[in-house]
Design a protein that fits this description.
Layout: H1 6-43, H2 46-53, H3 57-64, H4 67-74, H5 92-105, H6 112-120, H7 124-142, H8 148-167, H9 171-174, H10 178-193
Helix pairs in contact: 1-2, 1-4, 1-6, 2-3, 5-10, 6-7, 7-8
Amino acid sequence: MTTQTGSDSRGGREDRAVRRSDGTRAAILDAARRRFAEHGYDRTTIRAVAADAGIDPAMVMRYYGSKDRLFEAALAIDLRLPDLRDVPRADIPRRLVRHFLDRWEGDPADDALMLLLRCAVTNERAAERVRAILAGQVVPALATVTDARRTGLLSSQLLGLALTRYLLRVPVIADLTADEVADLYAPALAGLLGLDAG
């Protein structure tokens, strides 16, 4: 029979503590995203987020410090844009449309994009995050394909699609399959980007 050394025992406890901490942080963030998405920034309270996460409000403050910092964390988004350098130019518009559709529809647990879209219209902090995402993620990803002006217009097209398909749920758009959207939308984006859609 083997015995655990003190350091092994401490290491195990520390690992369990980290896992608990990560789980608590994730539960807070999930609850906050749901609250912010449903009630907006002003009507969301730390107490309500804590109740939804099943923890004490002091724990929310311990991990995030304030409602502002919690909101910022809830809006943290990585679009995971594909590297387009090796994609044939004619395929780029469809690849972009499918990427955004997959990003919106492929991970139901990740509602940060929906939160951002809902809040950006009325909350300057969320609007600033949208601008930062465009400048820091979208523009660099498309820099080898087109210029910043066209990238901005492409972003407006994709945000409009998200608004009508996922928030307003306009039937003629919401009822289309992802492939139908990509087939119909890619040629428009190709023209906007100055690319040959093939």
